[in-house]
Write a structure and sequence with these properties.
Layout: H1 3-9, E1 18-21, E2 26-32, E3 36-42, E4 45-50, E5 54-57, H2 60-70
Antiparallel strand pairs: 1-2, 1-5, 2-3, 3-4
Length: 71
């Protein structure tokens, strides 16, 4: 099973959670719908994505590490 499958079934993903999509897009969940999430990927930039496109959840510390390695 993909990591997102476990997160969806247990109801762990909710508004405010930070996620990574299978395409490598990082964002914060703004709204949870039946089959989709509305996520914010940058200030004022929002995307509507399928729940099935979520690869994993990431924490604030993980995002800081990722930002440092890209710099």
């Amino acid at each position: 099973l993909f990591p997102y499958t476990t997160l969806f079934r247990s109801g762990q993903l909710q508004k405010g959670d930070k996620i990574v999509t299978t395409g490598g897009i990082y964002g914060k969940i703004l709204k949870v719908n039946n089959r989709t999430f509305l996520i914010e990927v940058d200030t004022g930039t929002k995307l509507k994505i399928e729940k099935s496109s979520v690869s994993s959840e990431w924490s604030k510390s993980a995002s800081t590490e990722a930002d440092e390695t890209q710099a």
